[in-house]
Specification:
- The chain is of the alpha+beta class.
- The protein has one domain: Fusion Protein Consisting Of Minor Coat Protein, Glycine Rich Linker, Tola, And A His Tag, Chain: A, Domain 2 (2-Layer Sandwich), CATH 3.30.1150.
- 44% of the residues lie in helices and 22% in strands.
- A three-stranded antiparallel beta sheet has the order 2-1-3, with helices on one face.
- A hairpin with a 4-residue loop joins strand 1 and strand 2.
- The N terminus is likely disordered.
Length: 127
């Protein structure tokens, strides 16, 4: 007789579904960036990247970390250098590049957020 009494508390403990509710909150709270969209975004930026002639002649190389925010239609809302390459010509080119590249690819339907904040590396290499 004690076995039927023990079984209902086990069912009562397992019947509330806390895991799906938590998973839904995490999924809904964390904006997703579609990998194929991000790949297209990087291709767009690379198409508009120019290696400054003066930087090339001085053999300047480096990576600029570009931070920016986009709205759903691909328009840049904010932009800044998160980390300099150490060469002003390269840093200035990255700021000009993102302006030339606008509008960037619009968000796909799978990305439901109103805006996305990204930081991407832009590499300048003479090799």
């Amino acid at each position: 007789m004690t076995l039927p009494v023990e079984k209902p508390p086990e069912k009562a403990q397992s019947s509330p579904p806390p895991a799906p509710v938590t998973a839904q909150r995490v999924k809904g709270g964390a904006p997703t960036v579609e990998p194929s969209w991000q790949t297209g975004l990087m291709r767009q930026l690379q198409r508009f990247k120019r290696y400054p002639a003066l930087a090339q002649s001085h053999k300047e190389e480096g990576v600029v970390l570009l931070s920016f925010s986009l709205d759903r239609s691909g328009h840049v809302l904010t932009r800044s250098i998160a980390r300099s390459s150490g060469h002003p010509d390269l840093d200035n080119e990255v700021m000009a590049m993102i302006v030339r590249a606008e509008p960037l690819p619009p968000f796909p339907a799978t990305m439901t957020q109103d805006r996305v904040d990204l930081t991407v590396p832009i590499r300048f290499s003479l090799r």
